[in-house]
Each structure stands twice: as structure tokens, then as C-alpha cells.
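[Solved] Which block belongs to which protein?

Original post:
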Amino acid sequence: MASKQICRAFLKSLILVQIVDVMYPEEIVLPMKAELVDNGFEDLTTAMEVENAVKKDGTTLLVINSVCGCAAGACRPGVLMAIANATIKPDYITTSFAGFDIEAVNKVRELQLPYPPSSPAILLFKDGQLVNMVERHQIEGRPAQLIAQHLITVFQEHCN
């Protein structure tokens, strides 16, 4: 009986991986990725890149990008406004795309515990530790300017 359950769980995970692997096509994702990458964000696509980025000394901003409307209307513009207007900024700015950079986002989700998965999301790590997270429910329905103001306050508190 136990081996049947293990096999069933394994098959379900394979099916899930296959579905997740093709969640969003490149032609949809790449222009949305470019909005951050073209503004200096390092694109993290693997678990190792995420680990290396967040464990650096100093502060690392990590934006979980998404295809949803709140990512386009509030998250990306808010993050870009914050970076452009803050006098104190994170040492590193990075991004991964939910539903596309599967391995990287899975690693971020491990590192963001006890917070639940969220996309979009904005995370700030300091010396390898998560010190702030803005979840989707804190982004949805809020203007980009409010997101930017909040992030500038977070930068002032945690960035040197």
C-alpha cells in the first residue's frame, strides 16, 4: 500500500512539473522581464543564482515578477520608482519570474518561509536573512506610488 501511495505522489509531482514547465510562453514573459532587467536588475533563473544573490553581504532586493495586472500596474512601476528616487538603496537588485524561472522561484519560496508563496512579491534580504517582504495582497489595488513610498521606507530602515 505504501509503495502505491509513493508512486501516486511521484506521478502527481511529474505531472505538476510538466504543467508548471510550460506555464507561460517566452514571448509573453520576456517583455515583462525586460522592464526590470533593462533597468539594472540581475535576472536570476536558477536556484544557485538565487542562493548566491541573497547570501551576499549587504542588502539584496529580489522581485518576484509576474504576468498579472498588479505586477504591471503596481509592482514593477513601484519598484522602479523606489530605486530611482531612494537616497538609500539596496546593494543588489535582482528578479525572478513566477511561472517561468521555476527553479529560481522555488528556491525563493523556500527562503521566504514562513511567508506563503506570492507573486508578485518584493523581498529584501540583508546579509542572507529575509528582513522584509511585500506580498501580493499588499500590492493588489494599491498605486505604484504607495508601493514606492513603502519600499523607500524599508530601504532607509535596512540598507546602509
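(Second protein starts here: sequence line, then its C-alpha cells.)
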Amino acid sequence: MLQKALQFLREHNEIAFATCEGNLPKIRVFQIMKQEGTVLYFATSPKKSVYKQLHENPNVELLASADKVSVRCVGTVTFDVSDDVQQWIYDNNEVLPRLYTSYDKMVYFSLNIAELDYYDLRPTPPMLKHFDLRTGDMVDGYVGERYSQEK
């Protein structure tokens, strides 16, 4: 099921990306630029507020959703992205060259997914799979009180 969730992220790379500024949440649409297993890569301008927010608090949450399925990921970003990966991201994205004259005008960061939730509301009962990628644990769950495991 983890591979199914990761494939969903590959197919739905436009995501809601949440940071914090002080104690206030900030959310915006972002694009996953590259995916290697459970590591996701992103690019942004060093002049944007998201760059400052990530330096002040590197903990993020993201959400991809389509057709009653969603994948939520939690983790901590790092700005340690190799030059080769930065160049690949720039060269393989149709929008970035229209916005920036060179790949080195941007900053790149990665998210090594720490936790991932896969929700599928199509079956009855709806399904929730929670993956803690730090420990390797996977927990099944249900959505809503009707199918709660608590009686």
C-alpha cells in the first residue's frame, strides 16, 4: 500500500504545502519537482516568504488529493540538494525556465517523508493506512465513527 501511495504522489504532483510563520499556518500550492522513493524535491525563489519560513521552521505537511483519494505527508525539509539534482529539476520542468534565467537563481530543498497517510474514501468502509517511515510501522484505520474500532 505504501508503493500505491507513492505512485499517487507521482501522478498528482500539484500539492497543498503547509509551513508555519510564528504560530500561524501558511499554505500554498506547490509542485513536487522530483521524487526518489520517499524523498520529494522542490524549488522556490530565495525571495519568497516560504523560503524564510522553511529556514525558521523546517517542519512541513503536504497533501495531494484527487477522486476521493488523498495522501498526506509529514517531515522536515533540508536544503542539501546536489547540484546535479538541481540542474535536472530545472531542465525537466516546463515552467521554471519561463520564470528564471538559470537553475542557480533558485533554491532547492527536499523532504524525506517521515509519516504518510493514505486515505481512500471510495470503498465502504473508507480506508486509512498510516505509515511511520522512521520506524517502519503501518497502522490500518477507518474514517468516521461508524467504522471506528472503538465501540
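Accepted answer:
You had them paired correctly. Confirming on the second one: The first strand starts at residue 14 and ends at 21.
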